[in-house]
Design goal:
The protein has 140 residues and is mainly alpha-helical. Helix content is 46%, strand content 9%. Strand 1 and strand 2 form a beta hairpin.
Length: 140
Amino acid sequence: MAKGPYKKPSKWAKGKTDPDSWWKKGEPSPNPKGRPKGSKNQKTLWKEAVQKKITVNFDGETQKMTKQELTYHQLAQKAASGDLKAIAMQMSLDEKFDPGENIPPTKAESAADFDTFDQWFKLRETFKVFKQSDEEENNG
């Protein structure tokens, strides 16, 4: 099997190109059919779609609300009617956007914790588990 001509190793690292071949400002674009100016990405299109206001008949009166607001109203309505998937979704949204408050312990609960700590401390002193003798401290 004949080998082809010897290829001289590149002085540029793998995946790198010669800086002389890079595009320079003022030259023709290397991607002339690239993304057109003013085009919107999907995130922008999504925000515009859900923030669009529509007129709905809500609780017997005509109101204007965004599609996103209407979605939350419909979810709450389905959850109230007993739809288990809607209930689960609403609970997850509640946990995410309306977390419960951290209630501090009552005096009785705190007293019980301190009693437990005092008992542990007395047992520790009784059995001297964490104390070393003077000989071990001097030799160690």
